[in-house]
Amino acid sequence: MNQSTRIIKTGILGAGQPNIATNHQLPATLKSKLAEAVALCDMNPGVFEYAQKYRLKAYTDYSAMLADPEIEMVQIATPDWCHCRHAEMALQAGKHVLLQKPPCLNRDELLKLAAAAKQSAGSLKVLLNCRETRLCRSIKKCIDNGVIGQLREIIINYRGRRFPVDDPQSRYLKAECGGVWLHNSMHWLDEAFLYSGSLPDMAQLFAAKNDCGEPRFLGEGPNYWSAIFPMKNNVTFNFEYNTMLLRDGLPGGMQRALIGTEGEIRQIYGNAGLMLYRRSKEPEPLSIVDAELSPEEDVIESFRLAIDAYATQIVTGVEQSPRINDSLALMNALLNGIESWETEQCLGLEDFNAIL
Amino acid sequence: MQSYNIGVIGIGVWGCHSLEQTLAANGPGKITSVCSHDKLGAGLYGGRLEEEARKYAAKFDAAFHDDWRNVVNDPGIDIVSVMVCPAKKAEIICAALRAGKHVVTDKPLAMTAEEAEAVCLAEKESGKRGFMLAGYHTRPLVKTLIEAINQGELGELKAVSIRLCFMGGIFPGFEPSVRWRNEVPASEMFTIGSHAIVTLLKLTSGKIRKVYAVRKFDFYENYHRVNAEDWATLNCISDSGLVANIKVGRIPHRVPGEDIAMEVTGAEGYAQIAGDCLKFYPSGKIIQIPVNGGQVLNDTFAEYYSCLTDGRPMPTTFQDGLELQNVLAAAIKSADSGKVETVRHNSSIIMDLKYFQQKSFS
Fold it and tell me: Which of A:254-293 have CB within 8 Å of B?
């Protein structure tokens, strides 16, 4: 088969119930013209229903799926504490691995993961679809076109409830999982990396906790984080992640401000649009790419673009953005953030390539 | 009604500033004396300073002096407006208080925390009243928010986010100089940052314990040229565990209607100020008040006279100025060191009043 038309056959781990694997990654893979879903795997017998519906192979044994020679790429969408182990197994089996964020939960796992990727015949990529949403693509396009001059400040705020965890024994509620800071923040740090083209130089974090509210929205750690990441190229990333519990949780939404020497791109809470404010000009709405898509279609499309980029990488052998070492460096920065909060220090970030 | 004679020391960056004029316009005050001298300011006027200051004095039919001591020691003066560079403030304010004058100044109170503490002690010893104009807590929306916090509507405060930007360019005629940068350390972190920090301090009863700060020259080439900063980001944590994220800057573009944007999260509620709107959650209460900076200033100075008369605390006291100075000192240290720095509080500051009696600037 011609290399450029080779379709990457993929199996999805964690696809036994309604979750990110079945709601987003599977539909995105089915839409892809560069990747083809051939198998699903989960300990949950629900995997058979999904497999039957889409005429795919079903596995309840992960090792068995990894032994399937038809599968070239494995998508891993298991709970956060399984990511590192499942990725290591797939890499050892020589598969290419598309791993949900966060790739791991601590620095030991991070180093193990990096070593496994280095030794494998396959490759590793962290699935960071947020950068592929139309909003992020629109912002990136505007920055790249120089509309706001040189980017200087990136401000991203999340406000809302954390995802509910009904099982009080779930590890998602334990401090070792790092709360939603580790579960979600990589998306926004990756966004800052995307816009600035630079990795963080330092990490400084303060956090607070509010114990009021339903236990399923609480965890052992903080539920408000305020972080400053000075990036290497004179851009500062300022990030607030506010999942403080009130009686009914906060009104949800994202707020973004990208400030450059010539103006600012702004998303206000709860608004899917962007405004542009420029020096000596009237404010104007910023045009959004793929505006015709519904919000749900936009999410699926963002996954498809991420899956396609990885399929292209596998076929061509040319690493596509985000590069794995950059993603692992971002993960390292998030871990430094936690350490910064615990020690009340600002931590410099080593060159992750050197660590590897 | 008692009337007050106002002595002006320092005519400000642009030849006149609104502080004493607003003071005179909103109560029984009259400007009777004006002093300016090159050594009191940042040298932004060059050779034209005395000429401008004399013109300014003539405008109010006031006497002109080139030595600030003549104003401070004038028995006819009741209130001294001190609008000089931070490096010169403490000596002059202390002298004015000791000479039995009330003192009005703008932020920050002094150059260092030690100087600010000396000013507070001089105020206490003199029995006179000091007022430092700073912060956005006198703006109706912020005032309403503070009242709601004090009434417990949000429960215990957990997180505060403030973005305060002076938008739309640099004041005409102002050119940052090396001397200005040296006399206003960290530039806009020191100036605009003071407003944000005082606003934060008015929201919370706790003390800021640790600070991490990044200061930058982001937008203006003429700031960059003299290593002056036009943007700063601060991350703070208080002794009660409250976390505050502060962004301040002078930026070239405008976001209409927005000079301050705030979010406050408490254990029981959340509030957001965006433009002219204050929203509360979960109550859903929405309050809209258009921003009118001039009116706020007028109301603040009208209140100043009431406070002088009935002894109530000033809208912003010198004690607030000392708290501000403590946070600023840690923020500047942090921006220099790249580390999280501890905010010193008064008990840990050793000061010597004689220091100011011996020190001479002019």
Answer: 257, 259, 261-264, 266, 268-269, 277-281, 283
